[in-house]
Amino acid sequence: MPSGSRDYNLTQSRHTSSPQWTLLGCGALGGVFASLLTQSGQATRVLLRERHRSTLHPGIDFTSLEGHTQLINIERGFISQPGQIKRLLVMTKAGQVIEALTPLVGQLATDVPIVLLHNGMGIAEQVVTLFPHNPIIAGVTSHGAMQSGHFVFRHTGKGETWLGPVNEAARAHAALADDLAAALGQAGWDEQIQARQWQKLAVNCAINPLTALYKLKNGELAGPRFADALQQICVEVADVMQAEGQPTGSDELLRRVMTVVELTADNYSSMYQDMEQGRETEIEAITGFLLARAASHGIAVPVNQGLYQAIKEKQ
């Protein structure tokens, strides 16, 4: 099936009768997606870890891009009693995906699609090992989100969302993008999703470690202070991408990075937010993945290596 992007007008007629979404993970982006899916009229619930069972769960306090705040009631479940899952949208941090999914091994029907929507790469292959018969779908999104309290979420930036197949079984589930489009305003299906994952990885390698280390908003990377570092990061990432069969150039990657810096100028990167809150970052799935692929090809990536070490030490 060719790549394609859906918009709300094409999908609103069918999404209300679609199967319920179960979201695993309710951090900043998970909370925003759960809110947007619910607002679009789609049946949605969140599946929480056991440690949250004793915690008070008020409704989601959601603030839209336009600044409108709304209290959203949403169904909740827990990992030990997952109930019937018809389609699973995994929105935990990259390093938590396998731990979060492991209790569901043997609990999911083999036709339940598992959509992975996290930063970084290298996780989907592990999920295929856990669920060899389920449709596994990889996703990338550039929506911005912040969590400012217990079940308090703000949508900070509208972006693109793309899904694509990790295994053969996933190819029958392109219509999932239609329902996401009804909630997000845009979503697309791309059979070559790995190319988009690499492009997103390049942006994350450039923006996330620098903003986290120097405590910056994304837009502050546009100044001359970081010009050389950003260029060197993009040169190294381009070398690895080319070795991986992903044709690109460092100038093209740098233009992409600076476009994201401009579009998200007032946002704080997810890695910055994780560092500030004392949470584990996604450095392993982002720069760590790049370093592993670089090593496999014998490519030196000293700038990215230095950023990786700095984040690990500070983390």
Q: How would the blueprint of this fold be written?
A:
Elements lengths: L3 E4 H4 L9 E4 L3 H12 L4 E5 L11 E4 L5 E4 L2 E4 L9 E3 L6 H5 L12 E3 L7 H7 L5 E6 L2 E6 L2 E6 L3 E5 L10 H9 L1 E4 L3 H22 L12 H17 L6 H14 L6 H7 L7 H14 L4 H13 L1
Helix pairs in contact: 2-5, 6-7, 6-8, 6-9, 6-11, 7-8, 7-10, 10-11
Summarize the structure.
This protein is of the alpha/beta class and 315 residues long. It contains 11 helices and 13 strands.
Structure description:
Strands 1-13-12-9-8-7-2-3-6 form a nine-stranded mixed β-sheet, sandwiched between helices. Strands 5-4-11-10 form a four-stranded mixed β-sheet, covered by helices on one side. Helix 6 (193-214) runs antiparallel to helix 7, helix 6 (193-214) packs across helix 11 (302-314) and helix 7 (227-243) crosses helix 10. The longest helix is centred in the middle third of the chain and has 22 residues, at 193-214. By secondary structure, the protein is an alpha/beta fold. Helix content is 39%, strand content 18%. The chain has helices spanning 8-11, 28-39, 97-101, 124-130, 176-184, 193-214, 227-243, 250-263, 270-276, 284-297, 302-314; strands at residues 4-7, 21-24, 44-48, 60-63, 69-72, 75-78, 88-90, 114-116, 136-141, 144-149, 152-157, 161-165, 186-189. It has two domains: 21-191, 3-Layer(aba) Sandwich (Rossmann fold); 195-313, Orthogonal Bundle (N-(1-d-carboxylethyl)-l-norvaline Dehydrogenase, domain 2).
Would you list the SSEs in sequence order as H and E? EHEHEEEEEHEHEEEEHEHHHHHH
Under CATH, the topology of the largest domain is which? Rossmann fold
Number of strands: 13
CATH-defined superfamily of the largest domain: NAD(P)-binding Rossmann-like Domain
Strand content: 15-25%
Overall morphology: globular
Q: Uncertain runs with pLDDT below 50, 5 residues or more?
A: 6-14
